[in-house]
Amino acid sequence: MPLTPPPTLVALLHGPDQPGLVARVAGWIFERGGNILHADQHRDTEAGIFFQRVEWEPANGDASADTAAFHEFGRSLGMNVRVASSAHRTRVALFVSKADHCFHDLCLRWRAGDLPGEAVLVVGNHPDLAPMAQGYGLPFVQVPVTADTTAAAEARQLAVLREHRVELVVLARYMRVLSNDFLERHPGHVINIHHSFLPAFAGGRPYHQAYSRGVKLIGATAHYATRDLDEGPIIQQDVRRVTHRHSVEDLIRMGRDLEKTVLAQAVRWHLENRVLVYGNKTVVFD
Amino acid sequence: MPLTPPPTLVALLHGPDQPGLVARVAGWIFERGGNILHADQHRDTEAGIFFQRVEWEPANGDASADTAAFHEFGRSLGMNVRVASSAHRTRVALFVSKADHCFHDLCLRWRAGDLPGEAVLVVGNHPDLAPMAQGYGLPFVQVPVTADTTAAAEARQLAVLREHRVELVVLARYMRVLSNDFLERHPGHVINIHHSFLPAFAGGRPYHQAYSRGVKLIGATAHYATRDLDEGPIIQQDVRRVTHRHSVEDLIRMGRDLEKTVLAQAVRWHLENRVLVYGNKTVVFD
Amino acid sequence: MPLTPPPTLVALLHGPDQPGLVARVAGWIFERGGNILHADQHRDTEAGIFFQRVEWEPANGDASADTAAFHEFGRSLGMNVRVASSAHRTRVALFVSKADHCFHDLCLRWRAGDLPGEAVLVVGNHPDLAPMAQGYGLPFVQVPVTADTTAAAEARQLAVLREHRVELVVLARYMRVLSNDFLERHPGHVINIHHSFLPAFAGGRPYHQAYSRGVKLIGATAHYATRDLDEGPIIQQDVRRVTHRHSVEDLIRMGRDLEKTVLAQAVRWHLENRVLVYGNKTVVFD
Amino acid sequence: MPLTPPPTLVALLHGPDQPGLVARVAGWIFERGGNILHADQHRDTEAGIFFQRVEWEPANGDASADTAAFHEFGRSLGMNVRVASSAHRTRVALFVSKADHCFHDLCLRWRAGDLPGEAVLVVGNHPDLAPMAQGYGLPFVQVPVTADTTAAAEARQLAVLREHRVELVVLARYMRVLSNDFLERHPGHVINIHHSFLPAFAGGRPYHQAYSRGVKLIGATAHYATRDLDEGPIIQQDVRRVTHRHSVEDLIRMGRDLEKTVLAQAVRWHLENRVLVYGNKTVVFD
Question: Residue C24 and residue B30: Cβ atoms within 8 Å?
Answer without folding.
Answer: yes
